[in-house]
Amino acid sequence: MLRFQHRIDFQKIAVNWAANQNWSPTFNHTTELMGANQPLAIGIDIGGTGTKFGIVDRDGNVLFSGEMSTRKHKEIDLFINELYEHLMVLINNAGGIGTISGIGVGAPNGNYYSGTIEYAPNLPWKGIIPLAKLMSDKFRLPVTLTNDANAAAIGEMMYGAAKGMKDFIMITLGTGVGSGIVANGQLIYGHDGFAGELGHTIVIPDGRMHEGTGKKGSLESYASATGVRLTTLEVLENSTEPSLLRAVDKETLDSKVVYDAAIKGDKLALEIFEFTGKILGLALANAVMFSSPEAIILFGGLTKSGDLILKPTRKHMEENLIQVFQNKVKILVSHLKESDAAILGASALVWEKNR
After folding, report:
1. In degrees, to the nearest 5, what angle opens at C-alpha 62 toward C-alphas 56 and 64?
2. CB atoms within 10 A of CB 39
3. What SS3 state is found at 332?
4. Tens digit of each residue's pLDDT (9 = 90 or more) over 222-267
5. Residues 73, 124 contacting (CB under 8 angstroms)
6. Which residue among 101, 185, 191, 333 has its CA within the 20 to 30 Å range from the CA of 345?
7. Could you give the CA distance from residue 37 to residue 252 in angstroms, rounded to a whole number?
8. CA 87 to CA 51: how far, in whole Å?
């Protein structure tokens, strides 16, 4: 068994190189490396603003990780070139390319079947991008791509709260609402690779307009951090109720501000969380009745609100379930460390592919 500190010369080289590139890699000094025979996977999470990447072992230990800008490169080839430079530093520290079993990538509008990113509105590359092929050609490794919520679901099944479960739904509550559906131990991709977009299901007919899709009344328009902000603005405009939120500039008003007001007992803020939980609970009831999961696992910034969002969500989910489904489905918060979750989810695609 070789400890990482036995490879200290590699680390010095990496740090010196990174300093010249204005980038700081992260090294886990406590992790023991098992030499070249230890199977490792690369996990990459491509977001609209930044891209996270890391090298992970089968036990879910993130051995090395880093981050770079997504928006910096308008050309996909330039993006992949920079990503390659960063990752090769980490790969060398992990024992070389021979230790890597493959690369998993989670990205908005990532298509598992075709390996393409298709018409992602928040990424700088438009149209259909053959990302898996481009990366495989560059790294000479197998590359598996799916959307970010599906990657999170596989990561949760392999490393987190869904470990040992065969039927569950993963819901990510961040700027938007993502979802991954696992049934009979298999992620549901659908015939074209885009199944599981619960965030875009309609919960209020002719409701709030979604700026990204042009559709009205979607779950994402209400139950995301963005949705909480929009609900707050509507409530403040249509109510004369005194509130701490009235003293906050509209430009800085976000779900965290609403949370801070709610824990101080602000009536309007509490009503906003109750309304958000009602909409989310209704949507989850619909999801339960078509897939009968063992659990629904929530992940993302909005879950930090704790019982402010969880209690009304559970209440309204149960109220909208028919009797045969009532009191059977757990609502859990993800067990994954938030800083590592995206990398773990993406890397889990490699192990899932090789099962």
Report:
1. 95
2. 14
3. strand
4. 999 999 999 999 999 999 999 999 999 999 999 999 999 999 999 9
5. yes
6. 191
7. 51
8. 12
